Amino acid sequence: MNTVKKMNQETGTGSRRKILSIQSRLVCGYVGNNIAELAIQLYGLDVISFPTVLFSTHTGISRIYGSAINKPLFDELIEGIKAINVIKDINNMITGYIGAPEIVESSASFIKHIKEQFPDRLYICDPVMGDFDQGMYVSDEVAESIEQHLLPISDILTPNHYELKRLLRSDADTIDSILEAVMSHPVLSSKKIVVTGCILKDTPVDVVDMLVIQDGRIERVSSPKVDIAMVGAGDLFTAVVSVQMAKGADLLKATHVASETLYRSLIYSKERNCREMNSECLLNCIER
To answer: pLDDT tens digits for 59-93?
Structure first.
């Protein structure tokens, strides 16, 4: 059976084999769309890719060059996609790093436009704001715009533990306290959430936890901790989750697959002393 036919049978969606990905674009490196596109394509799906910023390298480098995409250009690209009648082929949508509040608003408007036509299309929001190592790497204006415009229209959220704490305005670090804070939140209480990179009070030092929060309960997905600092890990994780759900997996199954893929990728990169994940890594670590 050829790959395309197999993929169509898995998804049950025929030509709906595109994922809309709105996030950063680098000249050199593997974060944002640079890694998400490749991962999605290796699974046999296509990508409608919108850049939110154009940077020379990722923001972890001490000096970067480039800027956020300006709103007129971003909006013009949206109109161009609307004009060629491919929105019907979108299976689901993801957003990641966004560098300007006006691009958050344009992204939200576009996603709403798609959902008005196709209410069953999933929107997976990775609310990229910061992490425990670097702190915030978007402005307060961008963070507030994400909370105001993207969170309410999302179906699934994939924050890291640092970002979840910011969204909840809480230092919750136990299963019970996180669940209580989420269920008390006016927006998050109705969402499905996968929290990555969790450091809970009872998380062993050699383990990384992920939490799948849905239907008023939390399920824990644990994997061995890989002692390596690697950019793009969250972007790869969200991309793989989106693919797995396009193939018909539920959120828990998609999280397990994405977690295993990320673990293999980190081990592969560490064994080869790679500074970041790359095409060779994904070719060897993504199980198709």
So the answer is: 777 688 999 999 999 999 999 999 999 999 999 99
As a whole number of angstroms, the distance between CA 146 and CA 130 comes to: 13
Q: Is the predicted pLDDT of residue 235 greater than 80, yes or no?
A: yes
Query: 236, 240, 232, 228: which is closest to 29 by C-alpha?
Result: 232
- Report which residue type is found at 278: N
What is the rounded CA–CA span in Å between residue 56 and residue 66? 6
User: Measured between alpha carbons, how far is 164 from 201 in angstroms, rounded to an integer?
Assistant: 16
For residue 280, is pLDDT > 60? yes
Q: Which amino acid type is present at position 189?
A: S
pLDDT band at 11 (very low <50, low <70, confident <90, very high): very low
Please write down the HEC assignment for all residues of the chain: CCHHHHHHHHHCCCCCCEEEEEEEEECCCCCCHHHHHHHHHHCCCEEEEEEEEEECCCCCCCCCCEEECCHHHHHHHHHHHHHCCCHHHEEEEEECCCCCHHHHHHHHHHHHHHHHHCCCCEEEECCCCEECCCEECCCHHHHHHHHHHHHHHCCEECCEHHHHHHHHCCCCCCHHHHHHHHHHCCCHHHCEEEEEEECCCCCCCCEEEEEEEECCEEEEEEEECCCCCCCCHHHHHHHHHHHHHHCCCCHHHHHHHHHHHHHHHHHHHHHCCCCCCCHHHHHHHCCC
pLDDT tens figures, 109-130: 999 999 999 999 999 999 999 9
* Residue 121 Rama label (left phi>0; alpha psi -120 to 50; beta): beta
Average pLDDT for residues 184-190, to the nearest whole number? 97
Domain architecture of the chain: domains with CATH = 14-285 (3.40.1190.20)
Question: How far, rounded to the nearest angstrom, does the alpha carbon of residue 163 sit from its chain's CA centroid?
Answer: 13
pTM of the model: 0.93
